[in-house]
Write a structure and sequence with these properties.
It holds the Pfam family HGTP_anticodon. Homodimer. Keywords: Aminoacyl-tRNA synthetase, ATP-binding, Cytoplasm, Ligase, Nucleotide-binding, Protein biosynthesis. Its EC number is 6.1.1.15. It comes from Clostridium cibarium. It is a single chain. It contains 14 helices and 31 strands. With 571 residues, it is α+β, with helices and mostly antiparallel strands. The protein folds into 3 domains: 276 residues, Bira Bifunctional Protein, Domain 2 (BirA Bifunctional Protein, domain 2, 2-Layer Sandwich); 129 residues, YbaK/aminoacyl-tRNA synthetase-associated domain (YbaK protein, Alpha-Beta Complex); 97 residues, Rossmann fold (3-Layer(aba) Sandwich), CATH 3.40.50. Strands 3, 7, 8, 9, 10, 11, 12, 21 and 24 form a 9-stranded mixed β-sheet that branches. α1 crosses α11, α2 packs antiparallel against α6 and α2 crosses α11. The two termini are 18 Å apart. The mean pLDDT is 95. The structure holds adenosine-5'-triphosphate (ATP) and magnesium ion. Adenosine-5'-triphosphate (ATP) binds next to β8, β21, β24 and α11.
Length: 571
């Protein structure tokens, strides 16, 4: 490609709307442009990278025995009503009506569609296992679209769905996908770690996420410093801390005017957060429930949702709802006399002595409260694990880092096949529901995550495997016939080798061209300058290192070397 012909405009200024490196660089390097909040157009350079990532995904999925498929993006409501998700999906689903007033949505994910395909097309156990995948645009009306294509409202996903005759088959399909994902992210140059994730009602070790460590990530990931354990904080079990044993004291009602927050209480009672128990009130599908955790702990809403079973929407209660449960203003809730449909008590609370809780009366707290003697509830793990707590596998200390989810593999079991009546005939002639798995990769989010991991102050540093162009050729002076002749010859012979070359034939200063090639992140650069008269050109890697002076006839060899170093074939 000749730069003079390519539709690309790089920006020197950092666009005000962008907060994180990948978003800034994608705009500055002219890879994409914004259309609306969370909706982007991909420019030729950006599209090339996306296609390269898609090619890798396609190759590894095919190698793993999956078959490519393409479903419609516009989906009829009936399918979603069958599975019960038409209502459950809520505001995140883009909904529309056709001219006959029939309901449709723009697919946020495709479990229903693939289950429907399987029930119509797969009849017998002899046809199983089947794994179908597609690379397609998804639509989600995210509450907070942000960070460019990291969390957008229209994005490209690879989603796959496996159909097996039993759990054993599903285990194999799941492992198979896990292995394919490891290869995919490796090949994209992305350091992604597989971590245990929450699998909701299905439970067990049935869900894993591929996480990229990143300060701008929206998930908290728990890592063990000593063993391989890694899990999303949603999932990682906490270990209750046992307080020092004390004799039970008599409950005392204390006037605490205007003392509501834990910080204010700590000051008022002149003690530590560990002496308090917070009672948080939630609306869970229009039922009011309360969760109790120690004063310094955070409620884990995923654990709470799982404990409640089948809850779709869990929200903090409104002040009116708090008042109806506690007969008090916000800040004075406690377990004694509270009116809620369920009271969940974090196990740690049962190992505390003589603690302080709200008195369900505005302006009052109770001191010396003890679990079991003064109240009871459903005891379980309802809080987030914290740094320094025990690894659930080896017992050593854990750490917590921010992470971005780039892929997700999930054992669905018979959740969809049962609700949608998707059956096959087994060895004994009996009808059985398919045992399913689903597997997603955010293609566009992967692209942004690679940039997050590979950039410097000058721009993007693409891994050779997904770079929009493998190399650039920069003639220093396009008016110099000799330089242009050598540049053209190199351009043609490299292209013949199957190498993607971007020739910067613009009549610009060399400095401008260098800056653009660096910003765009092209892995290799050949500069054709004055030294051509001596038969030499300069070769430089975007990852750093010196400008190497090499003979013109050695350029192809040098480029091939880089391909070999990266375990890539030159075609
Ligand atoms: P998140 O927790 O980030 O919202 P999710 O659990 O909703 O993700 P899945 O439904 O498992 O995501 O989708 C599979 C993959 O699609 C994710 O691993 C992620 O890479 C990608 N993805 C999901 N939502 C978005 C989005 N709004 N923008 C870009 N990529 C997304
Ligand atoms: Mg989501």
């Amino acid at each position: 490609m000749k730069m003079s012909k390519m539709l690309v405009s790089t920006l020197r200024e950092v666009p005000a709307e962008a907060e994180i490196a990948s978003h800034k660089l994608m705009l500055r390097a002219g890879l994409m442009r914004k259309m609306a909040s969370g909706v982007y157009n991909y420019m030729p350079l950006g599209l090339k990278v996306l296609k390269n990532i898609e090619d890798i995904v396609r190759e590894e999925m095919d190698k793993a025995g999956a078959q490519e498929f393409l479903a419609s993006a516009m989906l009829p409501a009936e399918l979603w009503q069958e599975s019960g998700r038409w209502d459950a999906y809520g505001a995140e689903m883009f909904r529309l009506k056709d001219r006959n007033n029939r309901d449709f949505c723009l697919g946020p994910t495709h479990e229903e569609v693939f289950t429907d395909i399987a029930r119509n097309e797969i009849k017998s156990y002899k046809q199983l296992p089947v794994n179908l995948y597609q690379i397609q645009t998804k639509y989600r009306d995210e509450r907070r679209p942000r960070f460019g294509i990291m969390r957008s409202r229209e994005f490209i996903m690879k989603d796959a769905y496996s159909f097996d005759k039993d759990e054993e088959g599903l285990d194999k399909s799941f492992k198979n996908m896990h292995n394919a994902y490891v290869k995919i992210f490796n090949r994209c140059g992305l350091d992604a770690k597989c971590v245990e994730a929450d699998s909701g009602a299905i439970g067990g070790a049935n869900s894993a996420e591929f996480m990229v460590k990143s300060e701008v990530g929206e998930d908290d990931v728990v890592f063990c410093n000593h063993c391989d354990y890694a899990a999303n904080i949603e999932k990682a079990p906490s270990t209750p801390e046992e307080a020092l044993k004390e004799e039970f004291k008599e409950v005392k009602k204390v006037e605490t005017p205007n003392v509501k927050t834990i910080e204010q209480l700590v000051e008022f009672f002149n003690t530590t957060e560990k002496k308090f128990v917070k009672t948080l009130i939630f609306n869970a599908d229009n039922k009011i429930i309360a969760v109790m955790v120690r004063g310094d702990r955070e409620v884990n809403e995923v654990k709470v949702t799982n404990a409640l079973g089948g809850v779709i929407n869990l929200n903090m209660a409104t002040p009116e709802e708090v008042a109806s449960a506690t007969s008090a203003a916000v800040g004075f809730a406690g377990p004694i006399g509270i009116k809620v449909s369920r009271l969940l008590v974090d196990e740690e609370v049962t190992k505390m002595y003589n603690f302080i809780v709200g008195a369900n009366e505005t302006g009052y707290h109770f001191e010396n409260v003890n679990y079991s003697r003064d109240f009871e509830g459903e005891v379980g793990d309802y809080r987030n694990i914290t740094v320094g707590e025990k690894c659930p596998v080896c017992g050593k200390e854990i750490t917590i880092s921010r992470g971005t989810e780039v892929g997700h593999i999930f054992k669905l079991g018979t959740k969809y096949s049962e609700s949608m009546n998707a059956n096959f005939i087994d060895e004994n002639g009996k009808e059985k529901p398919f045992v399913m798995g689903c597997y997603g990769i955010g293609i566009t989010r992967t692209m942004a995550s690679v940039i997050e991991q590979h950039n410097d102050e000058n721009g993007i540093i693409w891994p050779l495997s997904i770079a929009p162009y493998h190399m650039s050729i920069i003639p220093v002076n396009v008016k110099d016939e000799e330089q242009m002749k050598v540049a053209e010859e190199l351009y043609n012979s490299l292209k013949e080798l199957g190498i993607e070359v971007l020739m910067d034939d613009r009549n610009e200063r060399a400095g401008v061209k260098f800056k653009d090639a660096e910003l765009i992140g092209i892995p290799m650069r050949v500069t054709v300058g004055k030294k051509v008269t001596e038969g030499s050109v300069e070769f430089k890697l975007r990852t750093g290192g010196d400008n190497e002076l090499i003979k013109i006839e050695d350029v192809c060899k040098r480029v091939k070397e880089e391909f070999e170093k990266n375990n890539l074939k030159v075609v």
